[in-house]
Structures are given as structure tokens and as C-alpha cells.
């Protein structure tokens, strides 16, 4: 059988619920076989696509014996013959990213020694690392090309110390006009390099220099930042994004485009003379205290710039620029307010904006050819959907199904190239017509190892809750057992809470299929407050993280139990992050579950202000912070920890010891209280793990967590 026939046979999975009884079931170690497409680039004439693949490889030197590997591949698109093995055309492992100029030439960001990343031409199969653009002394992060392919923009990231010393981005050798917020240092004088010699027994200036040396040696961490918690550590370092411009000729010197003590996270060519960028609002506030952003234009001829969008109320985020330069697409949102961002299209001749009337968020925005259409991906009803906007009328057309997840896409020359997740396969690359018809699969990243596996197709259900909102959920029936044998049921709850589960979600694909293979029914859904269902649905859990959403979860469970195949003495519950919050809330108010697992959760909203790096959520969801009028009472009423004395369900608690999204202290608090009360509780702390452990964390720890959850539930099966 040729590779095309093999791939088409895999597509047949989409019309069956389960493969034959002789098929192998999904195992926990199948996690190491899953490959994901993490980036996609396509050249202008659609003759070639470049895509990056993240996979798991064995590595005896790595902790746990596995590591992740991301590698770039190219795929000829005009050839009708499928490659016998799409992974044979892997590119140089030093390549960080492939980019194409509008005229079709291929370029590569290449990592060299000491983490230096530079841009190099890559027109043939051989990487030309001899040619690069001099003057860029920092790793290049983003690249943008002009419409005529003659110029490029490079973004780099600098620390505050580097920015102060930079002759490119701080040519006047200034200090920030905003306060560094170091007590006793009103003029930011401490930001200058110390002139005194380090001496622990010297005067105060020598002692200050000595202490600075200790910080450089990582003997101490000093911070004067409000937002000092990263995802897995703490830091006092401020970072800034700036841009260079350069002619694409060998030996050309780069020229700094931006400057000053604020960041420019995105920039694009608007014309051959103008560059447009989004930037932090220009105020005298510390960067940690700036929540709004503007859109600015740089004139490359006279060196001036001006703000074209910005009002101090919204965050304006540049999403896309039309090839003609006549239009830009911008996402606009109000910081720290529970609302969806809004996509607008602005005419650059008068800066009048027209909102796209669509009750979902929009990402990966791009203009179609001729400026007549706009495309974007929106999370919607359990899937990630590509939509087309007809700009002349404002009409919106969904091009893909809510039953699938489009993760990366490109449209042009009446063709679409995209990476897709389905219930049957976590990731493959596809080619289709621009309306996503006549689909052809281009890769065999996962289909080869999946062809002998029993894959369960989820069934979709909907009910209307007491608010009149339609709540969707999905059910995977177990792959083993007889028609007369009742099965255990596992309820999975997503995080967020502004997140979404569904068959288009690759992050949970393996976990669902694993538990189904172990004989569990699996139910997952999207209670009130989830994203992907519009603004009213999103806002319906304001000051209600517990009671209302738990009603939706338990109603879905009741509907499944009514099907009369579930062993109601073996109901289990698990969730991560906000899902752990809701898991704990439910078992403190409802006692039907045989056992439960809470992963990386928030249980006390008062301490969450200090323990988590996403503490601004308190203002967005509950109206303020603990010391403000009436807020403490609201937080206490909403916190599961205050109902934990009612927990009788055996509970397995997980936390990552480096998790600063929620904070390990949250798990410590819940475990210690339940342990003191003599409840059935077990606590697992994964060393070195952060909040992303179940999605992108250490592979062996991901397997460990899944197995511990399964084994804990099995202890209580009788």
C-alpha cells in the first residue's frame, strides 16, 4: 500500500466510534509517540510549506529519560506524489524558524553557540551561515519582510541593564523617566553601574556594589517589580522588545527603528516608507503598572513616529496588515475587565475602524489576496474554527467544523494549508481549496502508529441550564466491557475558567483516550464561564466560580447516568488549575464521587493574590483585591478551602513545586487541612514542574501524574 492509501485509510477513523476489538488500545506510553505541528510557513506561490514538529525522544541524559525535540521540515506542495516518509526531509537542527519573503525566497533563523540567533539565507538545501546581518548583538526573535522583499525588521529582547547601555536603543544614554520603584532611589541612580569597588567592610557605596555582585552570582534575588513571579521562578529583571530595520543585502548594517524604555511587541511594514507597531502606552508609570497599549507609525524617511490608535482605556494589539497597506486588523480589549476582545479593521487613510461583528475571540488573523477578505481562527463550541470575513459586507463564513481544531493555517492562491486536530488524530498537515473543501493529508506524523489503535469517538450532547444558556458536553464510552456490564465514569473539568474542552483540543487527546482504554467512560464539557460560546456565556460566572459552574458539571453527569450504563458507585472527578478549584468545590458540596483528583489548583482566593502570577484575575472575576471594600467577603465565600471540612471524598492533590501560576502553597494549604482532619488525602509534589506539567512538562512526570491518578481511582473501585 502506498503512503497516500495509508493516509486515506486513517481518515476513515472519522466515521467510526471504535476500531475493531482486535485493535490495540491506547497506552500511557503512547504519549511519547505523539507529534505536534507547532508552526507553519508557506511561500507565496504555494510551491513549498515549512512546518515545525515537536516530538518526544529518548535521552538518557535527561531527567526521566525523555526530552522534547522541535525540528523543521519542508514539503513540496505542487508535486502530486506524496513523500514516502514526510520526516525524511528534516532540516538542519540548528534552525529555530523558517520564513519566506513575499517573492518566495527562504530564510532561516539559526541558533549558534551561546544561544545567539541570527537570520541567514536558505535558498538551497544547504544553510548559508556565512552571510548574516552585522550589528545585531542580541538573539533575533521575530522577522518581518517588506512587500518588495528588499527589507526586513528584526526584533530583539533586552534587559533593562542592557537597554540602558545600548547605543542603538538608548542613544542619549538616559535613564527611565518612570520610577524604578526602589525605595530611597528617587532618581533611579542605582541603575547606573556602580563606580565603587565591592567591599563588604567598606562604606555604603562599596557595600551596595558588593551586594550587586552577590546578585550576579545568584546568591540573592532582589526585586522591585510588582510582577516578579514568572511561570516557574521569580525575577527582578525587566525586559524590553525593540526592533531593527535592514536592507536584505549581504553586509548591510542594521539600523535601530525603536528606542526608549517601553516595549514594541509587534511591528509590520505598512509601506516602503512606513512601519506600524503596537507598543506599551507612553506614560511615566513603571512598565508593570501599564495595562493599555497603542498603535504607532514610524516614518523611515524622516525618523519620526506618531500614535494613530490609543486612548489609555484599551489595549490595541496589531494582528495583521493588508498587503496593500490600506487596512490593518487590530484586537482591542479593556484590561482587567471580564469581556471578550474585539476584532476591528481600520482604514489607514483616516484611521476609522469597523468592528467585526462576531461573538467569539479572534486569533491568527490574516488578510486575503486583494484585501477583499479577512481570515481568523476562533475557539468555538469545542473546536478551533477558521472563519472568512467578506469585508465589503461584513458577512462571516465558518470554513471549518467545530468538531475539529485548526491550529496553524495559511490561505492564498485559492488554497489552504493547515494543521488540524481531530478526535482520531492529534495532528497532521493538510492541503485543501481555499474554502477547505477537497482536503488532502500531507503528513503521516501520527497516523502510522495510530492505525492499529482503538480510538473512541466522542458523542456530543447539549442541555439548557437555569440561566437559559446552552451547555455542551462530550462523552467517550469505554472500550472494554460487555453490554450488560456497567462501567466507571470519569468527569474531567477544564482550567481557565475562560478555556474550553472539545474534540479540537489536542492537549487532552491522550488522557481521554487512555482512560477510555482503561475501561472508564469519560465526560468533559464547558460549564458557564468557558470561552468559545460568546461574551454572555463568558461573563456568566462573574463572582460565581463555584455554585453555578458546578451545577452545569453535575447536570451533564446526571444526563449521562440516566443512560443506565454507568456504575454509580464508581464516579470519579478530576480537573486542573480552575478545574481543580471546581473539583474541590464540588466534593465539598456533593458526595456522590468515589474519589477525586485536584491538579495545580487554586483553593483559597485570598492567598491567591500573593501565590499566583495571574493575580489580576481577582479584579476581573470578583471586582477587586482583598483589602478593597466588600471583596474579602466575596473571595471567602467563593473559596473551596472554606468548605473543605465537608470533604469526605478521597482526594489526590497534585502540585508542581515550581508552579507560580497558582502557587504550591495552595496545594499545601488544602492537603494540610484535610490531613489534620483525618480525611483520605494524598499529596504529590513534582519537583521542578510548573503549571504546564500536563501539557508540556517533563514527559516522565506527565506519565507519572496520569498513572497516579488512575492508580488512586482504582484503589476505590470496590
From TrEMBL:
The reply on keyword Iron-sulfur is no
UniProt KW keywords = Hydrolase, Signal
Record-linked InterPro entries? AB_hydrolase_fold, Peptidase_S9_cat
Q: Which residues form the Peptidase S9 prolyl oligopeptidase catalytic domain?
A: 510-715
| EC id | 3.4.-.-
In the UniProt record, the signal sequence range is 1-21
| A Pfam short name | Peptidase_S9
Q: Where is this region: Disordered?
A: 175-203
Q: Residue ranges under compositional bias (Basic and acidic residues)? A: 175-184
User: What's its top-level EC category?
Assistant: hydrolase
Molecular function GO labels: hydrolase activity
Q: What is this protein called?
A: Alpha/beta hydrolase family protein
Amino acid at each position: 500500500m502506498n503512503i497516500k492509501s495509508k493516509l486515506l485509510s486513517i481518515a476513515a477513523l472519522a466515521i467510526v466510534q471504535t476500531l475493531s476489538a482486535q485493535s490495540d488500545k491506547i497506552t500511557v506510553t503512547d504519549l511519547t509517540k505523539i507529534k505536534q505541528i507547532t508552526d507553519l510557513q508557506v511561500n507565496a506561490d504555494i510551491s513549498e510549506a515549512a512546518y515545525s514538529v515537536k516530538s518526544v525522544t529518548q535521552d538518557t541524559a535527561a531527567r526521566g529519560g525523555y526530552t522534547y525535540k522541535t525540528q523543521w521540515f519542508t514539503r513540496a506542495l505542487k508535486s502530486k506524489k506524496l513523500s514516502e516518509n514526510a520526516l525524511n526531509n528534516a532540516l538542519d537542527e540548528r534552525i529555530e524558524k523558517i520564513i519566506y519573503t513575499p517573492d518566495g525566497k527562504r530564510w532561516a533563523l539559526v541558533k549558534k553557540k551561546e544561544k545567539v540567533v541570527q537570520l541567514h539565507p536558505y535558498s538551497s538545501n544547504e544553510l548559508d551561515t556565512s552571510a548574516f546581518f552585522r550589528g545585531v548583538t542580541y538573539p533575533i526573535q521575530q522577522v518581518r519582510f517588506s512587500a518588495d522583499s528588499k527589507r526586513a525588521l528584526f526584533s530583539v529582547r533586552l534587559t533593562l541593564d542592557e537597554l540602558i547601555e545600548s547605543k542603538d536603543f538608548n542613544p542619549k544614554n538616559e535613564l527611565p523617566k518612570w520610577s524604578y520603584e526602589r525605595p530611597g532611589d528617587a532618581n533611579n541612580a542605582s541603575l547606573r553601574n556602580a563606580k565603587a569597588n565591592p567591599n563588604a567592610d567598606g562604606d555604603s557605596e562599596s557595600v551596595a556594589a558588593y551586594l550587586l555582585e552577590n546578585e550576579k552570582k545568584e546568591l540573592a534575588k532582589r526585586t522591585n517589580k510588582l510582577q516578579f513571579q514568572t511561570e516557574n521562578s521569580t525575577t527582578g529583571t525587566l525586559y524590553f522588545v525593540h526592533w531593527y530595520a535592514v536592507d536584505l543585502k549581504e553586509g548591510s548594517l542594521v539600523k535601530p527603528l525603536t528606542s526608549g524604555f517601553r516595549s514594541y511587541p509587534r511591528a509590520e511594514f505598512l509601506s516602503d516608507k512606513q512601519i506600524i507597531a503596537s507598543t506599551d502606552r507612553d506614560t511615566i508609570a513603571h512598565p508593570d503598572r501599564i495595562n493599555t497599549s497603542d498603535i504607532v507609525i514610524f516614518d523611515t524617511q524622516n525618523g519620526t513616529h506618531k500614535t494613530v490608535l490609543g486612548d489609555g482605556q484599551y489595549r490595541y494589539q496589531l494582528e495583521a496588515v493588508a498587503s496593500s497597506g490600506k487596512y490593518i486588523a487590530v484586537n482591542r480589549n479593556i484590561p482587567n475587565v471580564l469581556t471578550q476582545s474585539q476584532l476591528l479593521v481600520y482604514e489607514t487613510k483616516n484611521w476609522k475602524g469597523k468592528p467585526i461583528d462576531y461573538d467569539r475571540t479572534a486569533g491568527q488573523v490574516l488578510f486575503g489576496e486583494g484585501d477583499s477578505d479577512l481570515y481568523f481562527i476562533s475557539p468555538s463550541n469545542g473546536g478551533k474554527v477558521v472563519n472568512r470575513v467578506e469585508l465589503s459586507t461584513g458577512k462571516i463564513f465558518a470554513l471549518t467544523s467545530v468538531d475539529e481544531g485548526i491550529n496553524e493555517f495559511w490561505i492564498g492562491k485559492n488554497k489552504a494549508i493547515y494543521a488540524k486536530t481531530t478526535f482520531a488524530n492529534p495532528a497532521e498537515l493538510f492541503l485543501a481549496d481555499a474554502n477547505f473543501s477537497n482536503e488532502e493529508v500531507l503528513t503521516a506524523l501520527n497516523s502510522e502508529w495510530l492505525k492499529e489503535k482503538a480510538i473512541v469517538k466522542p458523542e456530543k450532547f447539549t442541555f439548557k441550564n437555569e440561566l437559559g444558556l446552552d451547555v455542551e458536553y462530550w462523552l467517550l464510552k469505554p472500550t472494554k466491557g460487555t453490554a450488560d456490564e456497567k462501567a466507571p465514569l470519569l468527569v474531567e473539568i477544564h482550567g481557565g475558567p475562560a478555556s474550553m474542552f472539545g474534540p479540537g483540543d489536542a492537549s487532552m487527546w491522550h488522557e481521554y483516550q487512555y482512560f477510555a482504554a482503561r475501561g472508564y467512560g469519560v465526560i468533559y464539557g464547558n460549564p458557564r464561564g468557558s470561552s468559545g460560546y460568546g461574551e454572555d456565556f463568558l461573563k456568566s460566572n462573574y463572582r460565581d466560580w463555584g455554585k453555578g459552574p458546578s451545577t452545569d458539571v453535575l447536570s451533564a453527569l446526571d444526563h449521562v447516568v440516566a443512560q443506565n450504563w454507568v456504575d454509580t458507585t464508581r464516579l470519579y472527578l478530576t480537573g486542573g488549575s480552575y478545574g481543580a478549584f471546581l473539583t474541590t468545590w464540588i466534593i465539598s458540596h456533593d458526595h456522590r464521587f468515589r474519589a477525586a483528583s485536584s491538579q495545580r489548583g487554586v483553593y483559597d482566593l485570598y492567598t491567591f493574590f500573593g501565590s499566583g502570577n495571574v493575580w489580576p484575575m481577582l479584579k476581573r472575576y470578583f471586582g477587586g483585591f482583598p483589602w478593597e471594600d466588600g471583596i474579602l467577603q466575596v473571595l471567602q465565600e467563593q473559596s473551596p478551602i472554606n468548605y473543605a471540612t465537608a470533604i469526605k471524598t478521597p482526594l489526590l492533590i497534585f502540585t508542581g513545586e515550581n508552579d507560580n501560576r497558582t502557587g504550591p502553597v495552595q496545594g499545601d494549604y488544602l492537603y494540610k487541612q484535610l490531613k489534620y482532619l483525618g480525611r483520605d488525602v494524598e499529596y504529590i509534589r513534582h519537583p521542578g514542574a510548573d503549571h504546564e506539567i500536563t501539557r508540556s512538562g517533563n514527559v516522565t512526570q506527565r506519565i507519572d501524574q496520569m498513572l497516579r491518578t488512575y492508580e488512586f481511582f482504582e484503589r476505590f473501585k470496590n
